[in-house]
Amino acid sequence: MASSRFHHVVPVNALASEDGGNGSGSNGAANATASVAYDDDLESASDTGYRLPPSEIRDIVDAPPLPALSFSPLRDKILFLKRRSLPPLSDLARPEEKLAGVRIDGKCNTRSRMSFYTGIGIHQLMEDGSLGPEKEIQYLPEGAKINFLTWSNNGQHLAFTVRLDEDDGSSSKLRVWVANVDTGKARPLFESPDIYVNAVFDNFVWVNDSTLLVCTIPLSRGDPPRKPLVPSGPKIQSNEQKNVIQSRTYQDLLKDEYDEDLFEYYATTQLVLASLDGEIKTFGPPAIYTSMDPSPDQAYILLTSTHRPFSFVVPCGRFPKKVEVWKANGEFVRELCDLPLAENIPIAFNSVRKGMRSINWRADKPSNLYWVETQDGGDAKVEVSPRDIIYTQSAAPHENEHPKILHKLDLRYGGISWCDDTLALVYESWYKTRKVRTWVISPGSENVNPRILFDRSSEDVYSDPGSPMSRRTPAGTYVIAKVKKEDDGDTYLLLNGSGATPEGNIPFLDLFDINTGSKERIWQSNKEKYFETVVALMSDQKEGELSINKLKILTSKESKTENTQYYLLCWPEKKACQITNFPHPYPQLESLQKEMIRYQRKDGVQLTATLYLPPGYDPSRDGPLPCLIWSYPGEFKSKDAASQVRGSPNEFAGIGPTSPLLWLARRFAVLSGPTIPIIGEGDEEANDRYIEQLVASAEAAVEEVIRRGVADPNKIAVGGHSYGAFMTANLLARAPHLFCCGIARSGAYNRTLTPFGFQNEERTLWEATNTYVEMSPFMSANKIKKPILLIHGEEDNNPGTLTMQSDRFFNALKGHGALCRLVILPYESHGYGARESIMHVLWETDRWLQKHCAYSSDVKADLNACKDNAQGTVDSQSKAVGAAGGVQELANLDDEKFHCITRFHVDKLPGDEARSHW
């Protein structure tokens, strides 16, 4: 039900905590302990403390977030999950343990940096599509932080965790609460105040409508192990067996025996069965349980756990793994597998772990398991047929009952969509060739041969037929929906597609005959002004086939300037009823200008980008603007695929806390996401021509914004995050003629520090030495002459982008006299979460753009020439007007203090008033 772009909609029955990055924290100004200051003077950069950007940026970032939505299993109620703005830095500064690739808040015994909801509102969804009045969940403690919210299968109860702030600024441990949806009354699940949730891995799950299985902290657990003052011996790693073990640069790995003990201490769980009437019962022995999955008939539980021996070279996902079947009453049934430590999975894409994997319940059966086993030893470089085999078996097989082969695949298994014994869709893919296949199988009929339904390239978005829509079963699982037309009696599937076209995405819904392949388009987005998508099937409460005349779906609708709203669309009239009315999140940019543009690289590859211009801007009247280009390279196997258009010109311009679109409020033009395809056709490796294609793509983008008259050729900045930062540094080294400055956030700059592959590069440093060296901007630090701002989180946990990358790159730049600045953000990871950090990043970025782009050296002379004229005699390239509350006399300017006074920053005045102000 949820997808990444629907940031308001959360899964119907799987509301886990949000990513702790930029999600739901309060703005935190009152709670923050860090020093925060705002100064209009751009040149107080040597001062210490956190800074705030100008108010026109700050007000957008501090706008209250919209709630997330969750629909009940019966689709008759909607939850509005309240969120706060950015969290304070003090939240991130809480102590955390970095163990086996996981960061743990030892005080809460959960993942660290969890975001949370602040309240729950329940709305009845009326027959006419309108919402009833909001009913707040009651009796929650004041200041409750809510996580991991799920519906019971019958939709009558909610379960979630609650934690509170304590006097020392930390959060308490998590307790499970339940709420009656009809009354809105909430209460703790456990009467005992000593039972807490262990949420390092899984947390709790509904076994049936009145019982939950909860991961709890063992009551017998004592204090955490203490780090010995004197180690028991040296830290030793050995490979005397000469095994080939290649790993990417994983972060936060275990370092010694103490770390092993600490990981086991925090991760060990005692499972507890708890009913809503207060009965509790321990379930199984204490272990490091990583997932719990009840069977559709609620008779069995599939338990996955990890155990020793642990590893110092790979994260916990590759530790030994045991999968067991238990009865729902706590009786052990059988062990499915106990996989050994997997340190030696090859780094080649599509390589996997040996043994049973992807073990799940069939969604269309009461208690049937299925899983996959590789036939190539997990090594993608081994040629073998078949490569993967899918097996199925009942949860408690008879004595002589062996697993059945469901299907064999020559590519790598990619999942199954279940329907019934007559239909399931099996997916396979292969990264190297970008090939993806969809198979039609009949799980209950051995005499029906599987056949290929779709065989295409994953890069060819124009040929994407869409994905089958799923309906919810009475058991709470999701299966492929079958639809009948009353006039012909045939059965159809619903294919929901993004509808990529050369004019942009035009989402659709097709009736698809899986036997003949014929299609009938029954819905399509309005392509002229709006971008609409199908989010979920709403008429799925009953068993059997759905009637097309009773079809009901949830759609979203947005435009360039209108925020996403949600609608119920009902057949046969196809009448749309709006069910949300969210306000515009940043009305000051409501009239921004957005255009999806196309242009061509010199080798003939068609490129696309989204051009944003400030409200009220007219290039013929106002002249060119300073421009910020923000991008992220991508890899392709063909020029045709690289040239295809992705995205829609009518999508709402969402602006995140660190979005480059914030500089529309500072009168910049912003070229967002210009495609930078790195193409390696046939046997050619894309990265062998990375620099050549990178520069050609950038040149084409710059030439296009200059040709359109919206960008001053001397005032174009480039920036990016992560691989986009890597791109930025390379462009300043290899194409300095294009840009006046750059902003590089959380990047990697020396590829010899990531010797076993990076991004989509499968070859090692020793296999492609020249490519690694040539691609590394660190090796070209002596060529970077344009100003570059480096920003990095001090606690970056992303493989490949160690904080050391920015530190060493800065020293290389400084060693060659480059104009550079390095900002290390305490407590921040790969993405930035705290309000203080984000505001400071925006201040640094704005200062850099004002100083080295908007007011670069060629403009300073014009400004200095105006000093003698207090009325601001201005030429066509620098008309000065007041900003941020009034006119500042040009006579007061000097070379280093020239904040917001040219025509680029008429933020506080309407267009006509600003133009006539002087």
TrEMBL record:
It comes from the Eukaryota. This is Glutamyl endopeptidase, chloroplastic isoform X1. It comes from Nicotiana tabacum.
